[in-house]
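ok so dumb question maybe but i'm new to this and my supervisor (M.) told me to 'just get the structure for ABC transporter substrate-binding protein' and walked off. so i did the thing. is this what she meant?? sequence i used:
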Amino acid sequence: MRNNSYKGMIAAAAVVALTATGCTGQDKAESKPDKPALFKQGSEISYRKYGEDYPATKVKDVPGSCSYESISRKDYSGQTLKIISHAVPVIGEPTKLHARQFEEITGAKVEVVNVPFGELHQKILTPLQANQPAYDVMFYPSLWIGDMAPYLAPVPQEYLDTPGMKDVTKAYMDVATWNGQVVQYPVDGDRHYLKVRTDVLKDPKQQAAYKAATGKDLRTPKTWAEYQEVAKFFSGKDVDGDGKPNFGSAEVTKRDDLTFSAFISRAAPYVKNPDVKGGVFFDLDTMKPLINTPGFVRALDDMVKAKSTWAPGGANFGLGDEIFSFGGGQTLMSYSWDDAFIQAQQPDSRIRNKIEAAALPGSTEVYNRTTKAWDKKPNQAPYFTWGWTSAVSKASGHQKMAFDYLCFFSNEANTALDLTIGRFGVNPYRNAHFDAAFWEKQGWDKDVAKSYVQTLSGMEKSTNRVFDLRVPGVNQYMSALANGVAAALAGQKTPQQALDEAAREWAKITEQIGKDTVHDAYRNVVALEDYR
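this is what came out, is it supposed to look like this??
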């Protein structure tokens, strides 16, 4: 809980806000002199005062221009900051929490609009295209950068020079950059990786039963074929002894809720051949879609087979369902974002410290689109899936306040706390986040923390990586891909038929947007994938 002196400081902030006489115009308001700080350097920070559902964890406010101490010197009374973000809880909840805090310590009024994922792209892009300052700050998936970049204010150098920004990993600074300019403010770092329950996979009794049934050793799966074998063996069995069946795999399968990302995870080791350069989604030279080539078809065939390992309703799981299915112990494995892993590590979780992180499953062969044959060799391809990002509109009349809010949102203290709350959707994106000691301080067992940071940091070192498609019209492309995956999962089309149709749609989208326009943007993706 906050101490009485903290409550007094907040009360003082309220008085400042009520008595200030500043003008609402941007230039005059931003020239207000700093007020006395409401926090001492190194103050203890906790979210518990905002509700019992927040952890009692306390961290130190790290000195710097983004800290509680520094931001509380700002006087934004009389000004309104408008923010659009995803629905609560994923990224929407921390947006609202930090908006409330920003109001308390700066005197600003902060209005947050939370929008469901399916509506977010249009709600942001439409006013940007009309040059209307509907929102000062936007939170959205980073893969939309191809659509958003022309309307974003570049991140000023003073923010790029902060210690927190300088600690952002190279991969996620690349994600924030467009045509050599940082236009997105990093607040999250997302990857797909494997999560498993070690209390089951490392149980000698379960290992013996698996060996007897399959003739194979039970372990954390190394390939998608092995993942399927393990998931199938355990689906329908009561491994918890609570009278309820458990299931093998929780996957994001809902057509309009990130199915495309789950499918790309499955496709990555089949399609990202380390010996073939020039694009995974398109042939860079011709811009012909590659999503119906044999590697993608193999992945969709795998995904269709996996249906037998899902929990009831698993064919329509959104991200939230996957988070709570694995995080709550219903399923033994999942492979999407950090959120399910962090959810499983919440203090009240029944599977806390009974899990492990590992690299995405790979394959024993990878398609070579140059030779049009399968190369018989083990292959893995980390997938840097889109993460949440943030940005400031060029049309904003409050750019300084907007960047200060994002600076505060992502300061070291807030990020340290946000990382530990699974539903927030804030995942490691700074080098400091790969310190196992930090996670051990949160009550994680040493082995769990080690598996987590080594898995995530190892992806940064890979030279055979897959990144999301980051081009204008990306929502149309991903929607067409999701439609194809959904048709195959529903049994309406074979995987080949479904992806052939998706490829035809991709070709039409490219023609509508302009082949040269898409090509110029896609080169940035290829440069990341080919590690150039």
